[in-house]
Design brief:
The complex is a heterodimer of chains A (173) and B (824).
Chain A lengths: L1 E8 L2 E8 L4 H8 L18 E4 L2 E4 L12 E3 L12 H8 L9 H14 L5 H7 L11 H12 L21
Parallel strand pairs in A: 1-5
Antiparallel strand pairs in A: 1-2, 3-4, 3-5
Chain B lengths: L15 H5 L15 E7 L5 E7 L1 H5 L3 E6 L23 E2 L5 E7 L2 H8 L3 E6 L6 H6 L14 E9 L2 H7 L2 E9 L11 E6 L5 E5 L4 H11 L7 E5 L14 H13 L3 E4 L2 H7 L6 E9 L5 E11 L7 H7 L4 H4 L5 E8 L14 H18 L4 H6 L7 E2 L5 E2 L4 H11 L2 H4 L7 E11 L14 E7 L5 E5 L8 H13 L6 E5 L16 H28 L6 E4 L2 E4 L6 E3 H12 L2 E7 L19 E12 L6 E11 L6 H20 L5 E3 L8 E3 L17 E7 L21 H13 L2 E2 L1 E2 L3 H12 L5 E2 L13 E3 L16 H16 L3
Parallel strand pairs in B: 1-12, 7-34, 8-32, 10-11, 14-15, 20-21, 27-30, 31-33
Antiparallel strand pairs in B: 1-5, 2-4, 2-6, 3-5, 7-15, 8-13, 9-10, 9-12, 13-14, 16-17, 18-26, 19-20, 19-25, 22-23, 23-24, 26-27, 28-29
Helix pairs in contact in B: 11-19, 15-16, 16-17, 18-19
Classes of the chains: A alpha+beta (173), B alpha+beta (824).
Chain lengths: 173, 824
């Protein structure tokens, strides 16, 4: 049965008819074609499908889409703003925090939720916050360092500074 | 020489932006108009004849477009020419729980799944084999009707020199048995494929594969289609680690379905299916008999390995040889006997996982060396420093070793970890362990023996000033696109951002054999250098004429081409390309790479050769709770002999990722099976096919890792580079086991070194029994007569004295290969 879903995704209004059995993950990927959000298990085990719902990280594979009615949803596609990448994205790209890149969207989302909630988390806090996101490539250390680097670039503050001189790879070389 | 601008500098990888914006298109991200979805019906029996399949009800379900069974797939395929033992859907029998029996293609996944549940299969259960001992004990029923005999897939025996005499002459002979449990790759991306009949009527498949070339061959064979009418596009893999290196049944199924239906067909495996796909680390039991002189030199090694292969061949014959290949590359072993046996069991097939066949015996050898050092009252680091193989030498089993940075690796980790102040000196419960390893920089032999290049690169330069580079190499997260672009940009003196990479597409790109055996950086890299240098030469001639300077004085750097003696005599790179294009026409070049020929000419000598080898040493520190056996790893020091780090940011990621994966294998990861009760066919099912229960380390479990790179350029590598993706994993497991012994005085001769095993060993120790957990003995295997090869240092020529003429056999194999692989 199709049901109507109205909500906001990446600060844009969404009004769609979706199958009532579909998870938020499926609606984002299949109905809205926002395939930046990934899946690794569909059982809430790997963290790849994390999105922000009203600012809190949520595993979108465990949420029915209809439960998201009226909510504000942010996916990886909504992290960049005003044509500029989020400092977390810059630092993940620069510092080797993304290898295959499959877990990356979920980790970026989870890290953003942490930095939005806590202005100055310790390394232990960062590791704890990311412990539900599995990554098989990096060994996590470059991920944690990238979050710390983004912190230093003011990722946690509301008014972001122009942080990196260039955002395109290699442009400064 | 111009200083390097790109190579050696830490850089954002070329695909970094796409990955952090979610724009990297993985296979399951591809959504096409009119696309249908596929689900597979998988066997619930571990070993059974298929008596009948009734698909009637499934076919009648609304929304179902096609139901396929094994009848549609008469032709067998497989990754190795010697074991084409798979069918896309089972035909006569099933061999493990999870073996695909039928496929439904429907309008959506839910409908396909519903239809799959309507298919009726009648099975005639057969005796099942859970463990290698059972497969060795019972020849019947055979899981396959090929293989050496009974349920033995392959048993090999090689002898290099008079091992028994060397053992007899040794001052000590150490004899130890070890077991390494299987584990799986666990890529976060589940395998996915989308197949399409393109507008011309040809087949295109977008798929998460590490080896598009081999899939191309398998599709051509199994679907009986000309390879020229098939296009395989390897989408970026969301992690591979070896698990996406086989041609897979689901890939053949969607390819067939798309051609029959003329509509795009997608499949994405669920996590449980990924566990059952497996092709991961073989469980291996091994026995090391090592002769040692009193001053700590190895006189001979007699190694036996028994591999639990699971239900299909996969890479298994190569895996078997790999368990015995690299011992001599790491250490000087003048005489060597290797006997390896792979048996079939009714479990998911094992295959290559990071380190392919070598981590298991690396574990055994490094733990045994720890025991030898203790017996000889030698420091384990010092003992190893005294037995390193000489550089630029030929080992007893005819592997040609190039540069060896192992001594520096050992010295570095000893110094960085304060080894001398810690080893046997830390308080009870804390310990350090050391281990070393070596690994291939690419397999020296192709899977399908032929004289063709292993990697090809094509370059297009045009008047835009942009460069496009084409190569079949496959981006699986390791950074192969970045290596390719970095090298081309360095040679042509432009920015990586000016280069576009087109990779992993059998229509558009020259063949590269795939992302396995740590081969891409070295092989693709050398091909890329050749193509770029040829392009530079084409551009340099006309530019030199224009500037009125000799071509050999031209420098390509900073997006300019200039005279090294008068740098103001210059043109931009774009101008240079236009000058050349006006003079010589369209500019395109190629480069290729073929590894040197193997030195060994005996059967089995094709597994192990590599253009050059990397070396690694690691020290792991552990904390062990002597009450509970709980183990944590606070710190790891690792040094890796890489030759040259092309992009240090990525290299560090490979080293740390290897340490991480090694710790997972050492401490917790297990691809283990259990039997269901007899009323459920005694099925062999995965103990925990979920990411929650299959334990892998999280960010909270990671130690501090101190990484040192040893960089002495190897002349065989691009800019001197050797591999880094696999070697650094190898020493971690034995270093953990050795550290546990240092911490609490018990030997866990079995991977994983989990708390309950440590506790069991501690309890045994407290009860006055041997403080050890591990296999008691090596099973009886009926070994074939060994091939007798005289080692090079005893005057051998690389041939076995008791083997029929290899050239005749090679010729016969080439004939088979021609009919099997190249169909038109």
């Amino acid at each position: 049965v199709k049901v109507r879903l109205t909500c906001s995704v990446n600060q844009e209004p969404v009004d769609v008819l979706v199958d009532d059995y579909k998870t938020l993950l499926e609606v984002l990927r299949e109905d809205l074609q926002l395939t930046g959000t990934k899946h690794g298990c569909e059982l809430g085990e790997c963290g790849a499908c994390a999105v922000l719902v009203d600012g809190s990280p949520v595993l979108s594979c465990l949420v029915l889409a209809v439960e998201s009615a009226g909510r504000r949803i942010t996916t990886v596609e909504g992290l960049a703003a005003d044509g500029r990448l989020h400092p977390l994205q810059e630092c993940f790209a620069d510092l080797g925090a993304s290898q295959c890149g499959y877990c990356t969207p979920g980790i970026l989302i989870t890290a953003k939720a942490l930095l939005d909630a806590e202005p100055n988390p310790s390394r232990e806090r960062i590791c704890e916050a990311l412990s539900g996101n599995l990554c098989r490539c990096t060994g996590y250390l470059q991920i944690v360092e990238a979050v710390e680097a983004a912190l230093r670039l003011g990722a946690a503050s509301k008014q972001r500074q122009p942080l990196l001189a260039q955002s395109e790879p290699g442009a400064g070389q | 020489m111009t200083p390097r601008r790109i190579i050696g500098q830490p850089r954002r990888r070329v695909d970094g932006r796409a990955k952090v914006t979610g724009q990297t298109r993985f296979a399951d991200d591809i959504i096409l108009p009119r696309m249908l979805h596929c689900r597979l019906l998988r066997s619930t029996h571990p070993h059974a004849r298929i008596v009948s399949i009734d698909t009637g009800k499934a076919e009648q379900l609304d929304g179902v477009h096609l139901v396929l069974t094994g009848e549609s797939f008469p032709i067998a395929y497989g990754i190795l020419p010697v074991s084409h033992d798979e069918h896309a859907l089972c035909r006569d029998k099933v061999r493990f729980v999870g073996d695909p029996v039928a496929a439904v293609i429907a309008r959506d996944e839910v409908t396909a799944e519903s239809a799959v549940n309507l298919i009726d299969v009648v099975y005639g259960p057969l005796r099942t084999f859970a463990e290698p001992a059972e497969s060795l004990a019972h020849d019947e029923p055979r899981i396959h009707d090929y293989g050496d005999h009974g349920n033995v897939h392959k048993a090999v025996s090689l002898q290099f020199g008079d091992v028994d005499a060397a053992m007899a002459a040794a001052d000590h002979v150490f004899d130890d048995v070890f077991f390494f449990e299987g584990n799986t790759h666990l890529p976060i991306e589940q395998h996915a494929s989308v197949a399409v009949k393109d507008p011309d009527g040809k087949l295109v498949i977008y798929t998460s594969t590490q080896t598009p070339h081999y899939l191309h061959r398998a599709l051509a064979k199994a679907l009986a289609m000309p390879a020229a009418h098939i296009r395989v596009v390897a989408t970026p893999n969301g992690g591979g680690f070896g698990g996406k290196s086989d041609p897979f049944n689901h890939e053949l199924v969607v390819a067939k379905a798309a051609m029959l239906l003329d509509r795009p067909v997608k499949i994405c495996l669920n996590r449980e299916e990924v566990f059952y796909c497996h092709r991961g680390r073989h469980p291996v039991t091994m026995r090391f008999r090592t002769g040692v002189t009193r001053d700590g030199k190895i006189t001979a090694l007699d190694l036996q390995t028994l591999l639990d292969g699971g239900s299909y061949g996969s890479y298994g014959v190569a895996s078997t040889f790999y368990t015995g290949a690299l011992q001599t590359v790491t250490y000087d072993i003048p005489r060597y006997r290797f006997r390896g046996c792979r048996v079939f069991t009714n479990k998911p097939p094992c295959g290559p996982k990071r380190g392919h066949g070598t981590p298991q015996s690396r574990f055994g050898q490094e733990v045994q060396l720890d025991k030898i050092a203790e017996h000889l009252k030698r420091d384990p680091a010092g003992l190893r420093l005294g037995m390193i193989a000489p550089p630029d030498s030929l080992t007893a089993n005819y592997l040609r070793v190039g540069t060896i940075g192992l001594a520096e690796c050992i010295t570095k980790v000893v110094e960085r970890s304060d080894w001398k102040d810690k080893f046997r000196k830390l308080p009870l419960g804390r310990g350090v362990g050391l281990a070393c390893s070596s690994y291939l920089s690419g397999a020296g032999m192709p899977i399908n023996w032929n004289d063709l290049p292993h990697s090809g690169v094509q370059l297009k330069l045009d008047r835009s000033g942009g460069v496009t580079v084409f190569c079949g190499a496959t981006e699986i997260g390791q950074g192969s696109d970045d290596v390719l672009v970095g090298i081309v940009a360095e040679v042509l003196g432009i920015d990586p951002f000016d280069v576009r990479a087109v990779t992993g597409d059998t229509d558009l790109t020259p063949v590269d054999l795939g992302s396995y055996s740590s081969r891409v950086t070295l092989m693709m890299g050398n091909a890329a250098i050749q193509a770029a240098e040829r392009a530079r030469a084409i551009v340099a001639g006309p530019v030199a004429a224009k500037l009125g300077v000799p071509a050999d004085r031209l420098v390509f750097a900073d997006r300019r081409v200039f005279d090294s003696e008068q740098p103001d005599r210059s043109v931009t790179f774009q101008e240079a390309v236009c000058i050349a294009e006006a003079r010589v026409g369209t500019i395109g070049t190629t480069g290729s790479y073929t590894p040197p020929k193997a030195a060994g000419h005996f059967k089995g000598g094709g597994v192990g050769p590599s253009p050059t080898y990397s070396y690694t040493a690691a020290v792991v520190e552990v904390d062990v709770d002597a009450e509970t056996g709980w183990i944590t790893v606070p710190r790891v020091w690792i040094a890796h002999d890489i030759g040259c780090a092309l992009n240090p940011t990525l290299v560090r990621g490979q080293v740390e990722g290897s340490v991480y994966m090694g710790l997972g294998e050492a401490l917790m990861e297990e691809q283990a099976f259990r039997r269901l009760p007899p009323r459920l066919s005694s099925a062999l099912v995965h103990k925990f096919p979920s990411m929650l229960e299959y334990k892998s380390p999280t960010s909270l479990d990671m130690p501090e890792i101190v990484t040192d790179l040893i960089e002495h350029p190897d002349p065989r590598g691009p800019f001197g580079a050797k591999e880094v993706g696999q070697g650094p994993l190898l020493p971690i497991m034995p270093a953990v086991a050795n550290a546990v012994y240092d911490a609490v005085g018990v030997r866990v001769d079995q991977i994983p070194v989990s708390p309950e095993k440590i506790l069991r060993a501690l309890q045994a120790k407290a009860a006055g029994k041997p403080a050890r957990v591990g296999p008691a003995s090596f099973p009886d295997v009926a070994w074939p007569e060994p091939l007798l090869v005289t080692p090079p240092h005893e005057g051998g020529d690389g041939r076995a004295s008791n083997e029929p003429d290899r050239r005749l056999r090679r010729k016969a194999e080439a004939g088979v290969e021609a009919t099997a692989g190249v169909r038109s």
